[in-house]
């Protein structure tokens, strides 16, 4: 890396020159024209600031209704139901699918607050209308989550976003 | 263990966690039959290699040439570590990132912007040479952007240009990719920004062709290719020169430039928020060559 060593040598030269210039001006009368080996500038630092990653997740901009990608913002006021489902950190609906043992399909609804049994009743009724079958569900009151047998993430996401969560 | 719930203590119709009691039957051990009279076959079957435990090795087919020897070798994975890989980015995901405000469409979209938005993960050590734009979601894509990727499919180029955007494919060598993904740790090193290397012999035809919107291609041919693609995919090519964001859409990096606005040879001082530029003739000649 001959270039960096040249640059470093130039930096050292600048510092030596600046410290010795005071002595030289006192001792000799002829001023020495020294071209600076480096130019410092702060104008282009704007471009460097653009490259720094933001440290917080930005708030999504206001959309009137669903966005082109299919993302819907939550309603202004929470819906008047006995339960509440918060959005995830990335502003999405917290419904996830799980596949264990290669064949066990599950759907998980996380971040539930309030009366989780009312949500379970509503979800069972919704799935009854959807499939015609009574889907087994599991409620965990400690972690406030709801597990459903089978993959229903797309249906549940659209149903919850239509409710306003 | 305290369980909090809205149900009252008395008169509930479902079981609580504290209600479950252990049963002697739950913890009964299941052991195979052992011994003279209760022993029986112990789960080993009846006579033969199965019961006697002398089965041959896995893959043996009784003397017939086994499957893994009958099939001839073929170099599917030969040279896999010398092949460039491009992380795919679908238009659906790009639209999702723009909708959530993680990627700013009013600024030129670069690999750095995509990685900062956590839209893609690039691993330069796994021979990743950048990101490729895939046309999944080209029907729902509706954003006017100035995007620079390393590879793009024809459908993706059509979708971007249909919405009045600009797409360019450019080459970054592995060192430039490493710097582009993680600019801040690179600036902390105190090294001058290197100049971007030109593509190798096998990639020059890709980046000099106008159909791929290569950064080394002739601008006139690119305009002709834009019109031809619009005819092929059946949409009207919007006129960008009348656009208010035309200045941003026309921004392109120099062939040897790694970052927008910063030339090779400059050293960035993060602590004092300054940029140091060399003045030596030889250095300037090297960095501008």
Automatic annotation (TrEMBL), chain A:
The keyword Ribosomal protein applies. One of its GO terms (cellular component) is mitochondrion. Pfam families: Img2 (PF05046). GO terms for molecular function: structural constituent of ribosome. It is found in: Mitochondrion. GO terms for biological process: translation. Belongs to the mitochondrion-specific ribosomal protein mL49 family. PANTHER family: LARGE RIBOSOMAL SUBUNIT PROTEIN ML49, MITOCHONDRIAL 39S RIBOSOMAL PROTEIN L49. This is Large ribosomal subunit protein mL49. It comes from Oryzias latipes (Japanese rice fish). The lineage of its organism: Eukaryota, Metazoa, Chordata, Craniata, Vertebrata.
UniProtKB/TrEMBL annotation, chain B:
Pfam families: Ribosomal_L27A (PF00828). It is found in: Mitochondrion. It comes from the Eukaryota. Residues 88-168 form the Large ribosomal subunit protein uL15/eL18 domain. This is Large ribosomal subunit protein uL15m. GO terms for biological process: translation. Residues 30-61 are annotated as: Disordered. GO terms for molecular function: structural constituent of ribosome. Keywords: Mitochondrion, Ribonucleoprotein, Ribosomal protein, Transit peptide. Its main location: mitochondrion. GO terms for cellular component: large ribosomal subunit; mitochondrion. Belongs to the universal ribosomal protein uL15 family.
């Amino acid at each position: 890396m001959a270039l960096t060593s040249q640059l470093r040598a130039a930096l050292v030269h600048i510092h030596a020159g600046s410290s010795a210039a005071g002595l030289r001006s006192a001792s000799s009368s002829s001023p020495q024209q020294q071209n600076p080996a480096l130019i410092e500038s702060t104008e282009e630092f704007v471009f460097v600031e653009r490259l720094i990653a933001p440290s917080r997740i930005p708030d999504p901009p206001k959309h009137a209704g669903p966005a082109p990608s299919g993302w819907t913002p939550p309603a202004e006021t929470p819906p008047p139901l006995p339960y509440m489902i918060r959005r995830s950190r990335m502003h999405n609906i917290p419904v996830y699918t799980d596949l264990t043992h290669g064949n066990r399909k599950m759907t998980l609804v996380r971040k539930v607050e309030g009366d989780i049994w009312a949500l379970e009743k509503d979800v069972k009724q919704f799935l009854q209308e959807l499939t015609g079958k009574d889907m087994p569900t599991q409620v965990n009151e400690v972690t406030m989550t709801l597990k459903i047998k089978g993959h229903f993430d797309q249906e549940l996401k659209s149903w919850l976003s239509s409710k306003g969560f | 263990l305290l369980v909090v719930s809205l149900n009252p203590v008395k008169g509930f119709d479902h079981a609580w966690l504290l209600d479950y009691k252990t049963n002697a039957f739950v913890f009964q051990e299941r052991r195979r039959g052992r011994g003279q009279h209760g022993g029986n076959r112990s789960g080993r079957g009846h006579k033969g290699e199965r019961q006697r435990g002398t089965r041959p090795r896995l893959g043996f087919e009784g003397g017939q040439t086994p499957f893994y020897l009958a099939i001839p070798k073929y170099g599917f994975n030969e040279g896999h570590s010398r092949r460039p890989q491009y992380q795919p980015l679908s238009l659906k995901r790009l639209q999702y990132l723009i909708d959530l405000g993680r990627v700013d469409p009013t600024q030129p979209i670069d690999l750095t912007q995509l990685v900062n938005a956590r839209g893609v993960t690039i691993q330069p050590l796994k021979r990743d040479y950048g990101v490729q734009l895939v046309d999944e979601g080209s029907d729902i894509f509706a954003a006017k952007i100035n995007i620079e990727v390393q590879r793009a499919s024809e459908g993706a180029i059509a979708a971007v240009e249909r919405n009045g955007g600009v797409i360019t494919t450019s080459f970054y060598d592995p060192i430039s990719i490493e710097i582009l993904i993680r600019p801040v740790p690179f600036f902390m090193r105190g090294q001058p920004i290197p100049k971007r290397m030109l593509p190798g012999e096998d990639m020059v035809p890709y980046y000099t062709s106008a159909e791929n919107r290569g950064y080394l291609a002739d601008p006139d041919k690119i305009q002709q290719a834009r019109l031809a693609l619009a005819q092929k995919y059946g949409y009207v090519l919007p006129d960008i020169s009348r656009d208010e964001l035309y200045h941003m859409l026309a921004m392109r990096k120099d062939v040897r430039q790694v970052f927008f606005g910063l030339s090779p040879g400059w050293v960035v001082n993060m602590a004092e928020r300054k940029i140091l530029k060399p003045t030596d003739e030889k250095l300037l000649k090297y960095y501008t060559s």
